[in-house]
Amino acid sequence: MTLCDTSTRPEQEDFKAISVAKGLRAALNWRDVRFKELE
After folding, report:
1. pLDDT grade, residue 14 (50/70/90)?
2. CB–CB of 26/19 below 8 Å?
3. Domain locations in the chain as residue ranges
């Protein structure tokens, strides 16, 4: 049996909200900026 974590993180909720409101490209840009900040 495999257990899957179906809980959502705040980042996932933010990504989905941006995707719905502004489109997938805007959500992907938001995600990419967050990763660049970690470098």
Report:
1. very high
2. yes
3. 12-39
